[in-house]
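Subject: sequence -> structure tokens, single chain

Hey, anyone have a minute? Need the predicted structure for the following. Not urgent.
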Amino acid sequence: MIDLHSHTDQSDGTFTAAELVAEAVRIGLKALAITDHDTMSGVEQAVPFAEAAGLRLIRGIELSTKYQGVSVHLLGYFPLQQPSDEFRQWLSFLMETRRDRNRRLIERLVSLGIPITLEEVEAYGKTLTARPHFARVLIDKGYAKDMQDAFDQYLDEKGRGYVQRHDIPIQEAIDRIRNAGGVTSLAHPVRVAKNQWDVLERYIGELAETGLQAVEVYHSDHSPENVSFYKSLAERFGLGITGGSDFHGGNKPLISLGTGCRNNLNVPDELADRLAGLVTSKPA
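Reply:
Had a minute. Here:
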């Protein structure tokens, strides 16, 4: 059992790096990828704990991008080497765009009559402050009953408080990851085009031509039908396959590390080994 999609408290998860590694060891994972949003801080913190426990740890990242006006998340993996200093400096720029969105989100919520400060939210956010941390404060202050309610009312795209973040073009993200020695994978494709399978097929075909190397076939949001279809697309376009739970700890309490939502996930062990072979596939 492996899990190639997880988050620590350095982005929008609730487990520390040490706690995440301990959970991976407890459930018997053979490999774990930490894919925090816009930061490598969590996975770097996890390195000594994974080494001490004998756990195979893969450095990863998750980036928010845009493709043809659609929000698309892109996973990056570095199975053979650490990402370059240039790539890490670029991540610092992305963090600043996130901070700008957070400041505008505070202004929007205050305009709705909600007394909230950035300092309150950042107390939860640590390295990276994201919308789940805003949700925690909204719950604390009684403006939402739980995480889902906070997003539905205020933080999702249809919520009253939503503000747009400056997402980078997916092509730039693909190029940055690949030039840094990484592997690119389309995250949770079910969220990209919902169940418009013809649209998703077109997107993946186009992205495969411009450097996408893999598709996240296995994910906690994916039905058996989704898995079968995404696997067929990967085969059709010559792409690799990745998979993971998208574990966030208490921020997504129904999702368990390794096994997904109510045990709907089983990522084949060999996918971790195949990542290394994808590094040099289809040169950018």
